[in-house]
Amino acid sequence: MSFNSPIFQHLNGAQPARKPTVNQAFPIRAPVEAAAAPSGADLYARFAFAGAVCCAITHGALTPVDVVKTRIQLEPEVYNKGMITGFRQVVAKEGAGALLTGFGPTAAGYFLQGAFKFGGYEFWKKTIIDQVGLETATANRGAVYLVASGIAEFFADIALCPLEATRIRLVSQPGFANGLLGGFAKIAREEGLKGFYSGFGPILFKQVPYTMAKFAVYEVAFEKIVGLTGKPKEQLSPGLLTSLNLGSGVLAGFAAAFISQPADTLLSKINKTKGAPGEGVTSRLIGMAKQLGVRGLFGGMTARFVMIGTLTAGQFAIYSDIKKALNATQGIELAKAAK
Question: Where are the Solcar repeats (predicted)?
Answer without folding.
Answer: 42-127, 140-224, 240-325
